[in-house]
Amino acid sequence: MISFFFILKFLDMRKSERIVPKTKEEAISEAKRFLRNAKEILSKTEIEYGRIYKDPKATREAAGIAYLAALLAIDGYLISKGVPRDKLPTSIEGYMDAVRKIPKNGKLMANLITAYQNLHILAYYRGGVGVEMIKEGLKSVEEIIKILK
């Protein structure tokens, strides 16, 4: 399982201590591992009324980890295209700008927006616990990884 401190370190964009993969293969491998961990957390979270996850803390944790998987996959692609590790995006605007420059990026952009909104904003920040919303976000992360591997 991914530690909370690793996530904090990954998200600390103000410092140069950000953990960044060295290769595209490493990034995709880590992205897949993050996504597996998020799904594992959710699989242990009880669903109430067939619609909502009962444990908002676990749901937030899983959503945050899954969203990071999407960013790792994009980082890997950018590294493979020669972007220096210290020049990788540090904000959603930066990631969207980078995705706009990727050929045939419409599907990739749609998946990034869905992952960002469903997982990062609605589930992680706002505490959303809707099962279908989170599943849609996870599916978008899977698509991002599939497109960029």
Q: How would you describe the overall organization of this protein?
A:
Helix 2 runs antiparallel to helix 6 and helix 3 (56-80) packs antiparallel against helix 5. This protein is mainly α. The chain is 67% helix and 3% strand. It has six helices and two strands. The longest helix is centred in the middle third of the chain and has 25 residues, at 56-80. The protein has a single domain, classed as Nucleotidyltransferases  domain 2 (Four Helix Bundle (Hemerythrin (Met), subunit A)), CATH 1.20.120. The mean pLDDT is 90. The protein has helices at 4-11, 24-43, 56-80, 92-100, 106-125, 131-148; strands at 47-48, 52-53.
Portion in strands: under 5%
CATH architecture classification: Up-down Bundle
How is the main sheet built?
A: 2 strands, antiparallel
- How many beta-strand segments? 2
CATH superfamily: Nucleotidyltransferases  domain 2
**Unreliable segments of 5+ consecutive residues:** none
Give the helix level as a range of percent: 55-70%
Distance between the termini: 23 Å
> Would you tell me the structural class of the helices and strands?
mainly alpha
What is the typical, i.e. mean, pLDDT?
Answer: 90
Rg computed from alpha carbons, rounded to a whole number of angstroms: 15 Å
H-E order: HHEEHHHH
- State the CATH class: Mainly Alpha
Strand order of the largest sheet: 1-2
**What characteristic shape results from the CA principal axes?**
elongated
